[in-house]
Structure formats: structure tokens, C-alpha cells
Amino acid sequence: MGTGQAARTTLGSGVLDGNSTGPMVPRLALGARLRRLREERGIGRADAGHVIRSSSSKISRMEGGRHGFKLRDVADLLTLYGVTDEAERATLMALAEQANTYAWWQYYSDVVPVWMQTYLGAEQAASVIRCFRVQRVPGLLQTADYARAAVRLAHPDAGAEELDRRVALRMTRQRILHRRPATRLWAVIDEAALRRPVGGPEVMRGQLRHLIDVCRLPQVTVQILPFHSGGHAAEGGPVTILRLPGGELPDVVCLEQLTTALYPDRPADIERYWDAMNRLVVEAESPDETPTALHRILQET
């Protein structure tokens, strides 16, 4: 079995395409496997860090999939953990190579902050994305004109070239909804986001018409949380939950803030956000009612 084939087998059914999804999933998969091997051998992070001429904090970052892997480090850790089977070593070394691959969004590194790289990696690899938005239409469902207006509000000092690149990045991200297999997106949008005319009335009307069109896509579900629903389960703000392929990696929760994002990763926290998202789905109007509601808002805009 070649190394590329071994890596695909580990991640399941060839779902991962490094050219489009980047290194996020290989990093998480390899990190999780290295952690299990270390714990099974009863080896502490400090001892593992010493073997690769580093520290326990680096082992923690490696096991959390938060950066790439040196092939020498991976080989040394596998030896420390007693992995002698050639096929298993080849599979894990292939993952290490994939974990260092170039991601397409690195072309936009000048407009992608460090915190967003983690999110983009998860988004582009995700099989399912669930999100709730209060102030804006989700980026994956924005038109170019709406995106430009939203980017201008977030980056008022940006020049024309920077605006163009930020909008291009956002539009390119949307390809995951049209690839095969497509990522499934389930978005709950607060009514306020649909009535706030970002970019002016004409831009907003174009955005509402676009939402009506995307509601017809089988891979996209849109629900509206109306004003009359009152308080709701996610009053803390916007949240995105990303499910990665393969069934073995933990879900990624992203809480985007003004200049950064939080990624709570304790299983109990992830479960609480899933609970809030599931409650939102019940509190929001049915997806079948979304086109009618959008048409009504469009007529009033």
C-alpha cells in the first residue's frame, strides 16, 4: 500500500482531498493517534518532548493538531511508542506529510489571521456545518456585493485591493457547497440579520433573492429565528459547529469574536453547544417556511 493510499484509508473513503481541504484533518488525525499511542504506553508529555528535543507544550500542540509535523519528530515518537509495524508506520508518516501540505487559502495569507487558519481548515474539510448568525448572513451564503459591504464595515481602513482579496477569499470558500460530495450547511439566521440593510436596500434585496435560491439546494437548510420567538438558546452570540469526515475526529466549535475566535474543545462544552444548536432548530421557523418568510421580507425591504 502506498503512503497516499494509506492516508486515504485512515481518513475514510477518500473524502479528504488535500488540494481543497488543506492539512487540518491530517493534523487532527495524526495528533489524535499519537496521543493514544503515548497514553497506551504510559509515557508523559515531558518524556515524549525530550525524545524529540523539545518540550511537553510542543507535544500538546502536536497532539491537538495545531501545527505541522517534522517527519523526524514523528518517526522518533513512533519508535518511542513501540510502533514497529511497517504498514502502520507508513500510514502515519503519510499523514505527517499531508499535515504539512499547502492549503489553497495560504494564497490569502495577508488577509487571513492566525486564528482563522484553524477555522478555514475545519470548514473546508467539514462534512456538515451547523451555524447560528445574529448580525450578518453567514459568509457561505453571502453574495459578492453583500460580502464587500460586510468586509468594508469590519475593515474600514482597507484599500480597494485588500477588499477585493477578502471578498475573493469569502467567495472561494463557498465552493464546498458545490463540490462532490458537497458539504451540508444548516444555518439558523436571526430575523435581525435579514432586515438590516447591509450595503443598502438594493444590495440587501440581491442577498435575499440569493437566499431564496440557495434554499432550493438539497445540501443547504436555512431557518429563520423570528423576532416573535423571544429569547433563545444561543443568546451568547454566533456559533458554528463543524463535523469532520471519518467519524473519529471531534467536532470543532468556533465562537467568532471581533478580532479573534475561541475554540472550546472539552467534550462537555462541545455537547452543550450541540444542545443549544438543536434547541435553536426547534425555536426557529420550519425550513419549509423560509422561502415564504424571505419573500415577505424582500417585499418590505
Layout: helices, strands, pairs:
Layout: H1 3-11, H2 18-21, H3 24-40, H4 45-51, H5 56-63, H6 71-80, H7 86-98, H8 114-125, E1 128-133, H9 144-154, H10 160-173, E2 184-190, H11 191-195, H12 201-214, E3 220-225, E4 239-243, E5 252-256, E6 261-262, H13 267-283, H14 290-300
Parallel strand pairs: 1-2, 2-3
Antiparallel strand pairs: 1-4, 4-5, 5-6
Helix pairs in contact: 1-7, 3-7, 4-5, 6-7, 9-10, 12-14
Q: How would you explain this protein's 3D organization?
A:
- The protein is α/β, with parallel strands linked by helices and 301 residues long.
- It has 2 domains: 3-98, 434 Repressor (Amino-terminal Domain) (Orthogonal Bundle), CATH 1.10.260.40; 104-300, Endonuclease, Chain A.
- The protein is 50% helix and 10% strand.
- The chain has helices spanning 3-11, 18-21, 24-40, 45-51, 56-63, 71-80, 86-98, 114-125, 144-154, 160-173, 191-195, 201-214, 267-283, 290-300, and strands spanning 128-133, 184-190, 220-225, 239-243, 252-256, 261-262.
- It has a 6-stranded mixed β-sheet with strand order 3-2-1-4-5-6, sandwiched between helices.
- Strand 4 (239-243) and strand 5 (252-256) form a beta hairpin.
- Helix 1 packs across helix 7 (86-98), helix 4 packs across helix 5 (56-63) and helix 9 (144-154) packs across helix 10 (160-173).
- It is elongated and about 65 Å long.
- The N and C termini lie far apart (59 Å).
- Residues 1-19 have low confidence and may be disordered.
